[in-house]
Design brief:
alpha/beta; 11 helices; globular; 10 strands; about 40% helix; about 290 residues; two-stranded antiparallel ribbon; TIM Barrel
Length: about 290
Amino acid sequence: MARVAGNFIRLSVEAPHRTIAEAVLDRRVLTVSLGTLPRPDGADLRRKLREIRDVFDFVKFGDNPRARARVSPWAAAAVALGQGLEPIVHVGCRDRNRLALRSDLLGGRLLGVRNVLCLRGDEIEVSDQPDARAVRDLDVVDLIGLAADDFCVLAACDPAVEMSDDHAARLRSKIAAGAQLLETQPVFDPDGFARWLRQLREAGIDVPVLVDVSVVTTQPEAELLDRIPYVAAPPDLPARVGRDPDTGIALAAGLVAELLELDGVAGCHLSLVRGDPAASLAVLERLR
């Protein structure tokens, strides 16, 4: 076990094949990603999974992030299950119609996947394929409803968006459709997030919140954050990381420690830009 800001985070996997909604009933959780998987390198993925499987609760796989073709998150999830980790699969509306989405969800259940994050998906205009076209047969609320009978569903939220009546209504519609948790866009301002969280609760939305924390270790990684939609990293982060690579690790560890102090935070997701598990393990070392 590791003690983080008064909360115990488990450093060994005790009961695989649980939903994240079940896990957060017991304790705060940590989840992690392994980058965007641009190549189908099974040996490398298995190596990374072995490095993290004893210390993280769940591993997340993106669905063509930034509108770029990547390894299927369902295929990656199957590899993770084979290595004894519980996956959370991103499912986006952008690239598939309702038949294809339903087929993927059915296949995911056959594989044994139990957790999905339903997303609208980044705009197709940011793709590296200029002739690609978005499908968007279903809205994300429809997708949540499609998935909710068979999966524990997470839904996205953005603390940088003002908690207006319309925004709160949108989040309520996701929860009414079946979302059991909310997951944020990357957070860099814990005080601003705390205000947003209070407003969320005042709006009557009380589901657990998983907070995304980006982990960068190089100047190019920090610069890449500036090109990712809806991510508002500190403008001086590339220069700071360029001077001292440990800056990104220290920043992430400090954010996790502070965020876990907040009531209603179910845990944190460590988002690795390049997917090197050493960075996430370094964050944990600072939290011990």
